[in-house]
Design brief:
460 residues, alpha/beta, seven-stranded mixed β-sheet, six-stranded mixed β-sheet, 13 helices, 18 strands, globular
Length: 460
């Protein structure tokens, strides 16, 4: 099930990034006194009172300024009241979110920019929470009542993102709004294999999609996806229903222009939320760029299975070592998803494209693989005997019992004597052993460690 999205919107420099970092519990957005500071990752998974959702930090929305004070027609409805790209940005945030948090500045009060943003939000039937930030004393909290004049909500919340004042009440309000938000169409009955095509601009995503659709397949129908720039195309491959999700190219930070393009990261993440397998395209001519690894990190964070597709392989001059050298480079740069199969293709010529869908289907089978409990425990017991965990604080980790509690992705619950003794290197060892024995090609694994009942009682 896809997580709902909560978008932070508002004019520049009202504290959106500071609040975003506070709500997700980590410093992810870059904060600055300079309005419009560019941020790399602008989304984060969080939860409150058992409700999980995705928090989105958006760029500041700036209004169109008339050329002179008499030019008021530019702000009227039906005319161009915003710079087109910024208007598109605001509308995109409204469209994609389940709940919208409009942040305003309790010190400055209502501005023309606040009024214009509110005008956009009034046109949606989605829940809007108005939050007056920088209200770090009683007077500013009292002054925040003027924001009722925006006409968006029955209650204006006062907070201080810097000090954390009122953020718990805000999270309560967000969870309450999510429960009352209009339900989304999640295509619950669609059991097709969903494959998201992601990557930087100009790496050949559209060419790959067109090539895949141009082969002897039965195309059911092209339909608009959940987002405006993620298009779903349904096809049947060897009797298997498949949904290809095409996404916009994700640019590196600092290269994103205002408007819809600023939301390419959000929409790619939403596409990943709906996908089973991601095809991560990289350009063979340009090599592995930092942005490629960033997108790989998005796939890993979303716990989606992945196939790395090196496109434009026909444009590379080759010798006997070219393939092996490039493979080593890719594995080195993507060492955090070293389980991903690597394909070398050419969307232009069709070279090796016949391997793409079979590999994605095989990876999906691995994602749904379930290991019998007895076989799993026998194997883990042997792995622990072969390489016992080291001692820590005079104690040694003991693995009592292991269960695979779910698939999609495969998730394993280890019953141990002391979860705090599990070192990340030993967890990595166990994962590598599982992969060597059972496969799980292209799919992430989730591990959870729980203290056994007897140990819990004795430690008390």
């Amino acid at each position: 099930m896809r997580k709902p999205i909560v978008a932070l919107v508002g004019r520049p420099n009202v504290g959106k990034s500071t609040l975003f970092n506070r709500l997700i519990g980590e410093r992810r957005s870059v904060t600055s006194e300079i309005p419009g500071t560019t941020r790399d990752r602008i989304f984060g998974d969080t939860d409150w009172n058992g409700v999980a959702f995705i928090m989105v930090d958006t760029g500041g929305i700036e209004v169109y300024q008339p050329k002179n004070s008499r030019d008021t027609s530019a702000l009227s409805e039906g005319s161009i009241d915003f710079v087109p790209q910024i208007r598109a940005q605001a509308l995109s945030a409204v469209e994609d979110a389940s709940v919208i948090v409009m942040l305003v500045d309790a010190i400055q009060g209502i501005t023309a920019a606040d009024q214009e943003v509110a005008e956009i939000l009034r046109r949606t039937n989605k829940p809007v929470i108005v939050v007056a930030n920088k209200a770090d004393n009683e007077k500013r909290s009292f002054d925040a009542i003027e924001f009722y004049g925006l006409g968006l909500t029955q209650e204006v919340m006062s907070i201080s993102a810097v000090h954390g004042l009122g953020t718990g009440d805000l999270l309560d309000a967000i969870v309450s709004a999510l429960k009352n938000a209009p339900p989304e169409d999640l295509d619950a009955e669609d059991e097709s294999l969903k494959i998201a095509i992601v990557g930087r601009p100009n790496v050949g995503k559209s060419s790959l999609l067109n090539r895949l659709l141009g082969e002897e397949r039965t195309i059911v129908s092209p339909i608009a996806g959940t987002t405006r720039d993620a298009i779903d195309t349904h096809l049947t491959w060897e009797g298997l229903p498949i949904t290809l999700i095409d996404t916009a190219g994700i640019r590196k930070r600092g290269s994103i222009t205002p408007g819809i393009e600023q939301f390419s990261v959000i929409r790619a993440y939403k596409a990943l939320e709906r996908a089973d397998v991601a095809l991560l395209l990289i350009d063979a001519v340009e090599g592995v760029a930092a942005q490629d690894t960033h997108i790989g990190g998005m796939i890993k964070d979303a716990y989606r299975s992945v196939v790395i597709v090196v496109n434009k392989w026909d444009a590379i001059e080759k010798d006997n070592d070219t393939l092996n050298d490039f493979t080593r480079t890719v594995k080195d740069r993507f060492n955090f998803i070293d389980y991903a199969p690597i394909l070398f293709v050419s969307a232009l010529t069709g070279q090796r494209l016949g391997n793409v869908l079979p590999t994605a289907a095989r990876v999906q089978e691995e994602r749904l693989r379930r290991i019998p409990t007895s076989k799993l425990n026998n194997f883990i017991r042997e792995a622990v005997l072969t390489h016992p965990p080291t001692f820590g604080a005079g104690r040694q980790l003991k693995v009592k019992y292991v269960q695979q509690v779910k698939v999609d992705p495969p998730t394993f619950l280890f019953h141990v004597n002391a979860p705090e003794l599990v070192h990340f290197s030993y967890q990595r060892y166990l994962e590598n052993q599982l992969r060597a024995e059972f496969g799980f090609d292209g799919t992430p694994l989730r591990f959870s460690f729980r203290r056994t009942g007897k140990e819990r009682v004795s430690r008390r």
